[in-house]
């Protein structure tokens, strides 16, 4: 399993935005980690469509969190970027194997499909139970200077 690169970018950007009180332009957010602005903008637009970010146009515009950090789960961000589909897609190849039965939905009876679905649900449950606020608290505990450093870097990059 491999998530798209945009998931990492979106997670870090949401964390950084949680420490800021005003919209931040895509170009500034991209410069923060030396990311390509056009590609980051696609991720930010996906987060806005999902209701995680809001976008404001104009000279003082940009992106900011649409909800409190406690109301944004890591699963919300992953699903906004990579989609809500299950990671394992059962193509029901058992239909072509020996002992196949017409009309059977092998997605429901295949032991592999069931095991993969269980793992996917556990993964989603874990991500749904962790919020941007939780990660923010972890970061602030380990690196108390992070919020101030983020704010200073954003000011420097504007």
UniProtKB/TrEMBL annotation:
SUPFAM superfamilies: Winged helix' DNA-binding domain. Signal peptide: none annotated. It comes from the Bacteria. Pfam families: Rrf2. InterPro entries: TR_Rrf2-type_CS, Tscrpt_reg_Rrf2, WH-like_DNA-bd_sf, WH_DNA-bd_sf. NCBIfam families: rrf2_super (TIGR00738). This is Rrf2 family transcriptional regulator. It comes from Micromonospora trifolii.
């Amino acid at each position: 399993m491999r998530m798209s690169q945009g998931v990492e970018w979106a997670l870090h950007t949401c964390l950084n935005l949680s420490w800021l009180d005003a919209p931040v332009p895509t170009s500034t957010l991209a410069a923060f980690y030396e990311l390509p602005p056009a590609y980051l903008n696609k991720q930010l637009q996906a987060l806005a469509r999902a209701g995680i970010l809001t976008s404001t146009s104009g000279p003082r515009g940009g992106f900011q969190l649409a909800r409190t950090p406690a109301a944004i789960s890591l699963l919300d961000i992953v699903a906004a970027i990579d989609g809500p589909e299950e990671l394992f897609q059962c193509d029901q190849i058992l239909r072509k194997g020996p002992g196949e039965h017409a009309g059977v939905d092998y997605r429901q009876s295949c032991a592999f499909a069931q095991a993969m679905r269980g793992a996917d649900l556990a993964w989603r449950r874990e991500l749904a139970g962790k919020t941007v606020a939780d990660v923010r608290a972890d970061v602030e505990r380990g690196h108390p200077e992070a919020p101030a450093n983020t704010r200073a870097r954003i000011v420097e990059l504007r």
